[in-house]
Amino acid sequence: MSSRPRRPARPYRRPRRDPVRILAFDALRAVDERDAYANLVLPPMLARARSTGTLDARDAALATELVYGTLRRQGTYDAVLAECVDRPLREVDPPVLDVLSLGAHQLLATRIPSHAAVSATVELARCVLGDGRAKFVNAVLRRVAAHDLDGWLTRLAPPYDDDPERHLSLVHAHPRWIVAALWDALGGGREGIESLLAADNERPRVTLAARPGRSTVAELLADGRADPGRWSPYAARLAEGGEPGALDAVRDGRAGVQDEGSQLVALALANAPLTGGDTRWLDGCAGPGGKAALLAGLAAERGATLLAAEKQPHRARLVARTLAGNPGPAHTVVADGTRPAWRPGTFDRVLVDVPCTGLGALRRRPEARWRRGPEDIDRLTSVQRELLRGALRAVRPGGVVGYATCSPHLAETRLVVADVLKGLTDTGAEWVDARPLLPGVPDLGEGPDVQLWPHLHGTDAMYLALLRRTRQGAGGPFCRADMLNT
Ligand SMILES: C[S@@+](CC[C@H](N)C(=O)[O-])C[C@H]1O[C@@H](n2cnc3c(N)ncnc32)[C@H](O)[C@@H]1O
C-alpha cells in the first residue's frame, strides 16, 4: 500500500533578533519584576546599547516609545487582551503578558503596519519565550488586530453619559480612582478633565534649571539645543530628543533636569515676603535635591545658608552631591522631619516637599499610575501632616513655610493643610497668597494656595501652600483654615 506523500517539513528557521524589541522587553521585565522605574532603568540600557553600536539614535527613540507607550496604556491593553485570551489574564505568565502588551501597543497606538507589528512581536516571542509560546502570542495578536484602538474602545468603554469615569478611564488609560481624584481637584466639566488626562499621556520635553551662581539660562541656550522656559527665569527646555548629558553645565552639576513647576515652587518660597532676619533656610524633604539646589543658589546670593535634610541616607548622599559646588554655604543632614534634630523656631524659610502619590508627575513616570492605589493615601497623608507640623515648628514666628506636593489629590493638598491648621496648639499660622509669587503664570485659581496643571501650564501638577507662622496657637486670630473651601 502506498502511503500519501508527506509534505516536506519546513526547515527550522532561527528567530530574527531585533535589538530594539529585545531591549524594550528587557525594560518591561525590569519594571514588572523589580518594581523598577522606566525613567531610571531605560536610559542606562539605551546608553549601553548605543555605546556598543547595537542601537542607533532612531532605534533608541523607537525603544523608548515602545516602553513608555506600553506602560502608560497598560490598563487599556489589559482590557483588550482580556477579550482575546481564553483564560483570566492573571493566569498568563508575566513575561508572556509583557510580549502581548508590547504587541498590542504596536498594533493599536503606533503607525507600524499590523502585519509587521504581529510578525515582529512573534519573532520577539520566539527569542525570549520559545517557539511554543510564540504560537500563542501569534493567535492572540491576530485577535487584537481585528479592531483598531477606537474600535476596541467602542466595544469596551461604556458611553460617557452612562458612566463618565469608567469611560474616561478606558479611553485615556488612567485607573478609575485616579480619574475621580484628578477630576475632584480640577473641578469643571468634561473638557478640562479630558485635556488633563490627554496631557498625562504626552511625554513632556525635558526641562533644565540653571543653578543660580553656577550657570545661566543664556549658557544653556548657547548652542541651540534648548529654548527658554515658559515661566521660570532659570528654565530652559531641551529640543525634542535632546540629551541633558550633552550639555557641559549639566555634566558639571551647574544645571540640572527639573520640571518648571518644581522650579516655581522653590522660587515662590524664596521670594515670599518676610519681616526680620532672612539667613537660615531649611529644605526638610530634600532628596534627591532638585529644589534644594535652586534654593541653595538663591540663599547664597542673599547671604543665607540652606540646610537640606533627608530621611533616607542614600538620597541624602544625592543631595550632598548636588549641593557640592554651591557658591555659598549649604549643608546636608540625614534627619527625620517628623522628629527634627533642630530647635523649634530656628529657620526663616522652610520647604517641605512631602512624599506623595506622585499623581502630578504621571507624564514622566509611565508605570506609576498602575502601581499606586487609593490605599496609599491614608499612609501618605498621615506622614504629610506630621511633616507640615514639623515644618511649622521649625520656622520662627514671622517666617514662612512652603508645603509642596507633586500630587493634586485634594487629600494630599488642601485637606492636609486645613487639617493641620485646625489642630495647631503650640504654633499659629496664617496663609500667604502664593499666586503673586508666581508672576505671569495664569490660571492659578482662587488662592491662597496654587495648583499647577500639565494641560494648563505644561508643568507637573505641583501644589503649593505658603504659610506664615504667627505667635498665636490654635484658635488665634490668624489660624485661617477657614480661607479654604474644604
Ligand atoms: C517628593 S520627594 C522631595 C523631592 C525634592 N524636594 C526635590 O526637589 O528633589 C520627598 C522626599 O522626602 C523624603 N522623606 C520622606 N519622609 C521623610 C521624613 N520623615 N523626613 C525627611 N524626609 C523624608 C523622601 O525620602 C523623599 O526623598
From TrEMBL:
Instruction: Answer yes or no on keyword Metal-binding.
Output: no
Q: State where S-adenosyl-L-methionine binds.
A: C285, A286, G287, P288, G289, G290, K291, E310, D336, D353
Instruction: Report the InterPro entries cross-referenced here.
Output: MeTrfase_RsmB-F_NOP2_cat, MeTrfase_RsmB-F_NOP2_dom, NusB-like_sf, NusB_RsmB_TIM44, RCMT, RsmB/NOL1/NOP2-like_CS, SAM-dependent_MTases_sf
> Where are the catalytic residues?
C406
Checking SUPFAM superfamilies in the record gives: NusB-like, S-adenosyl-L-methionine-dependent methyltransferases
Which PROSITE patterns has this protein been placed in? Answer: NOL1_NOP2_SUN (PS01153), SAM_MT_RSMB_NOP (PS51686)
Q: Is Kinase given among the entry's keywords?
A: no
Identify the domain of life: Bacteria
Q: Which residues form a coiled coil?
A: none
* Pfam families for the chain: Methyltr_RsmB-F (PF01189), NusB (PF01029)
List each copy of the SAM-dependent MTase RsmB/NOP-type domain by range.
Answer: 182-470
Give the record's family classification: Belongs to the class I-like SAM-binding methyltransferase superfamily. RsmB/NOP family.
Protein name per its UniProtKB record:
Transcription antitermination factor NusB
Q: Which organism is it from?
A: Streptomyces johnsoniae
